[in-house]
Design goal:
Blueprint: E1 3-7, H1 11-22, E2 26-30, H2 34-42, E3 55-60, H3 64-76, E4 80-85, H4 91-99, E5 107-112, E6 133-137, H5 144-156, E7 160-163, H6 166-189, H7 196-199, H8 204-210, H9 217-226, H10 228-253, H11 257-278, E8 293-300, H12 305-315, E9 322-327, E10 333-340, H13 345-354, E11 358-360
Parallel strand pairs: 1-2, 1-3, 3-4, 4-5, 6-7
Antiparallel strand pairs: 5-6, 8-10, 8-11, 9-10
Helix pairs in contact: 3-4, 6-10, 10-11
Domain Prephenate/arogenate dehydrogenase: 2-279
Organism: Streptomyces fildesensis
Domain ACT: 294-361
Length: 361
């Protein structure tokens, strides 16, 4: 691939363009708002001028509802040898393309499983896709040349290709992406009118659950409107669990011993199934998650503290597998949880104490 045209210069399009430019591809940028394309160009994502001739690949990075019309227009203009989109749903846009009479042999639907809570070209980064799954949904009509161009794009962005059927993909993202967004927003919505005394008690748990609730509503309206059926199916199952949890908790309130036992069993079942599901979420390097030991360290809110603790862990010969920061409300301090191999925890604890760090249990 020597040349590419990215249509749509928001987070995904700008990030793909930045990655391609860094790998030596000549990239052109187009957006329905020319000023946004110029912003992406100013960031080094390519040229906001139109290409002089046909490019190798057109990357359509627009909301799902606009994919078909944008691709159809690009094909009518004969802009490229191959065309793909990076929208978060796949089956609907393909049906729309068929209805518009597009050449599906020159097109492949794709979806990089990466993103941020921020949107727009200023949120773009060349390493957004590194190590992340990038779904490809070829059909029997897809020409080999187009599939190879898509695979080259994935490789240049240093992502990991995953081949799936379009409908299977949409059901999968409903479960692992779209429903979690809605559930996170629902939990966060409970805080909107909560008493200040309750909100002041917020800790790391509520921050973890509501992190993605800060995402751009307009972007998620586009996504959910394009995949409503599969998301509704998953939410219906969640609603069944919620109803069961309510009934179990009411049972725990009862003076009847049998109802309390039944309620306790119901809550325990949900918690155990949650453990089992969480254990299936891929961990480091895409493998099954490992049980790490946590070394908790009190850390001040001042420049250089994180760098110092990582340097001290490195000097002790310990690899930090993961890290989490728990902020202390109203205080200039927090707790850093360093996840390490169990055998390394005692040595790290001793080394950090010797270097003056306050270890917390």
């Amino acid at each position: 691939m020597r040349t590419a045209l990215v249509i749509g210069t928001g987070l995904m399009g700008t990030s793909a363009a930045l990655a391609l430019v860094s790998r030596g591809v000549e990239v052109y940028l187009e957006d329905h708002d020319p000023s946004v394309a110029r912003t992406a160009a100013a960031l080094g994502a390519g040229s906001a001028l139109p290409p002089e001739g046909q490019v190798d690949l057109v990357v359509v990075a627009v909301p799902p509802a606009h994919v078909a019309a944008t691709l159809a227009d690009a094909q009518r203009r004969g802009l490229a040898r191959g065309y793909l989109d990076v929208a978060s749903v796949k089956a609907g846009p393909r049906r729309d393309l068929q209805a518009l009479g597009c050449d599906l042999s020159r097109y492949i639907g794709t979806h990089p499983m990466a993103g941020r809570e921020r949107s727009g070209p200023l949120a773009g980064t060349a390493d957004l896709f590194e190590g992340r799954p990038w779904v490809l949904t070829p059909t029997r009509e897809t020409e080999t040349e187009v599939l190879n161009l898509a695979l080259e794009l994935v490789a240049l962005c240093r992502a990991v290709p995953v081949v799936m059927d379009a409908d299977e993909h949409d059901r999968a993202v409903a479960l692992v992406s779209h429903t979690p967004q809605l559930v996170s927003s629902m939990v966060a919505a409970r805080l909107q009118h909560a008493e200040d005394t309750a909100v002041r008690l917020c800790g790391q748990g509520i921050r973890d659950v509501t992190r993605i609730a800060g995402s751009e509503p307009g972007m998620w309206m586009d996504i959910l409107a394009a995949n409503p059926g599969p998301v509704a199916d998953v939410l219906a199952e969640v609603a069944t669990d919620l109803t069961g949890a309510v009934e179990a908790l009411r049972g725990l309130q009862s003076a009847d011993g049998e109802k309390r036992r039944t309620g306790a069993a119901g809550i325990e079942d949900i918690l155990l199934r949650g453990n089992a599901g969480r254990d299936r979420v891929p961990g480091k390097h895409g493998t099954a998650p490992k049980a790490y030991e946590v070394v908790a360290v009190l850390i001040g809110d001042q420049p250089g503290e994180l760098a110092r603790i990582f340097a001290d862990a490195g000097a002790a010969g310990v690899n930090i597998e993961d890290v989490r920061i728990e902020h202390s409300t109203g205080q200039q301090a927090g707790r850093v949880q360093l996840m390490v191999e169990p055998a390394a925890a005692p040595g790290l604890t001793t080394a950090l104490r010797d270097r003056g760090w306050s270890i917390r249990s």
